[in-house]
Amino acid sequence: MSVYDFSVDTIKGEETSLNKYKGDVLLIVNTASKCGFTPQYQGLQSLYENHKEKGFSVLGFPCNQFGAQEPGTSGEIMEFCELNYGVNFPMFAKLNVNGDDAHPLFKYLASEAPGILGSKAIKWNFTKFLVDRDGRVVKRFAPTDKPETIEKHIQELL
């Protein structure tokens, strides 16, 4: 099994298979527009711009499970990201990352790269999962890990 086995809805509501990213290095992130970590959008966009030509993509998944910090509609979320941070990496429909209603992709990511002390729960917005070109989850990064500090790990996989 790999991340390529999952389908998700784009932020425009169109179902798509992650198989379309086969062969790319991915950074999959649960995002929120009203979080203390929201400025990380800027760093994520920089990573995307610097490495997309080498087969890298950031995939953003808005989530409202942490402090209700992503209350907007898909349109509002995308407008916020574009206007405030120039985001043009792929964004997807709002989903849950924890609990019974968690999207299967995030259940898979969390089981493949547990957090501290083996915890499978995602602790907060801007948890990041680095995926290699074969669709395998390589590493989980905490919300406090800034995108700039992840760049060396991305470069190793590219």
From TrEMBL:
CDD domains: GSH_Peroxidase
Gene3D superfamilies in UniProt: Glutaredoxin
Chain ranges of the Thioredoxin domain: 1-158
Keywords: Oxidoreductase, Peroxidase
PROSITE patterns per UniProt: GLUTATHIONE_PEROXID_2, GLUTATHIONE_PEROXID_3, THIOREDOXIN_2
Gene Ontology MF terms: peroxidase activity
InterPro entries: Glutathione_peroxidase, GPX_CS, Thioredoxin-like_sf, Thioredoxin_domain
Protein family per UniProt: Belongs to the glutathione peroxidase family.
Protein name: Glutathione peroxidase
Species this chain originates from: Fictibacillus barbaricus
